[in-house]
Amino acid sequence: MNLVKRIGRLFAKEEPPVPEKSMLSLGPGDICEVELVTYQVTGSVRNPGRNAVVLTLQDGSRIKYLHIEEREKLEFALYDEIDGRLDNPAEVPAELELDGRIHYLEEEYEGRVMVNGRAPFRQGGEQHVWQFQADDFSLLRIEWQDGRFMLYEGAMVIPGDVQVIRSN
Q1: How far are the Cα atoms of 23, 61, 122, 125, 153 from residue 86, in angstroms, in the given order?
Q2: What is the pTM assigned to this prediction?
Q3: Closest by alpha carbon to 141, among 127, 130, 155?
Q4: Residue 102: partners with Cβ closer than 8 Å, 6 or more residues away
Q5: Cβ-based neighbours of 154, under 8 Å, separated by 6 or more
Q6: CA-to-CA distance for 94 and 60, rounded, in angstroms?
Q7: Strand-strand pairing, 74-82 and 52-59
Q8: How many CB atoms lie within 10 A of CB 27?
Q9: Phi, psi angle pair for 3, to nearest 5°
């Protein structure tokens, strides 16, 4: 019997190693570090058509939003929610002034998103996004879904300042 087990082990396939999670595949319960601050991921909004995700990050009572998109390389932007009001998605201008800075429309797109965990929008569906940038590289992001707007202000993050700490 011992000889049969040895022969069986010689021909047995090794289990493939479990791949490490990338920032794009993080979800609720995972832990990441952004610019030396450790956050728990509490939600995600994925746009598979653009290979992008917006993670809801929580550090104590502070909530931030990390936009990750894979183009030629991974691009990261960290946002804070801001107060603001728009009435109609058809009336989003190409230039917006915020705190004395003029933000210029850089990109506008729409796509189907999937929501997981705690996120600004409770369910998936069609989402429209406007991304703006000012001359000082500050960012402004507007999202519209289900008749509701969300506004965010933030900045780009260097890829070396973002890492997965623990994933489920």
Answers
A1: 31, 27, 20, 20, 15
A2: 0.86
A3: 130
A4: 95, 96, 134, 135
A5: 65, 67, 77, 78, 79, 80, 138, 139, 141
A6: 36
A7: unpaired
A8: 17
A9: -65, -40
Residues in the chain, overall count? 168
**Rounded Cα gap, residues 116 and 13, in angstroms:** 35
Are 51 and 102 in contact by the 8 Å Cβ rule? The answer is no
134: left (phi over 0), alpha (psi -120 to 50) or beta: beta
pLDDT digits (tens, 9 = 90+) for 72-82: 999 999 999 99
Percentage of the chain beyond pLDDT 70 is 96
Q: To which residue do tokens 């001359």 refer?
A: 135
Cα(40)–Cα(55) distance, integer angstroms: 10
Residue 41 predicted with pLDDT over 80 = yes
Q: Which of 85, 88, 90, 54 is nearest to 69 (CA)?
A: 54
In this prediction, what percent of the chain has a pLDDT beyond 90? 70
DSSP 86-115: -S-GGG--SEEEETTEEEEEEEEEEEEEEE
The identity of residue 91, as a single letter, is: E
